[in-house]
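note to self — DONT lose this again. spent like an hour looking for the file last time. sequence + predicted structure for the chain T wanted, 140 res
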Amino acid sequence: MKEFLKSFFNETFWKFILVGLINTAVGMGAMYLYYNLVNDNTLIAFTINIVFGSTVSFFLNKNFTFKKKGSTGSSVVKFIVNIIACYIISYCIADVLVPRILSGLSKTIVDNISMFISSCLFVACNYVGQRFFVFKKNTK
């Protein structure tokens, strides 16, 4: 178990965290600006977060974190599949659970907390998907 943890939380993990801080700032910044200044639709706001943050994430993770060489085409397709799966999982879980748990609070507070939790769940799913599916190292 110790060896698994050591190999999982290696340099790649910490690079992913650094890239994640950057793309999270971009994505969540756009999401909260849209939600609080333009329209209080959480689905659109969260989608904006994913589009902006994921675009930054793809290029930084491909070139910096995972240093994936070769064609971008297959990586883009896998990346999009991964993002869609993470998006559905994280948004649905937070959209269902948070309003039930925080039912006594205002809609705006519940929505902001829900979007934050969605984003956290998305990051966790996304790391696993990018590391072991999208930018998986060839073992040849």
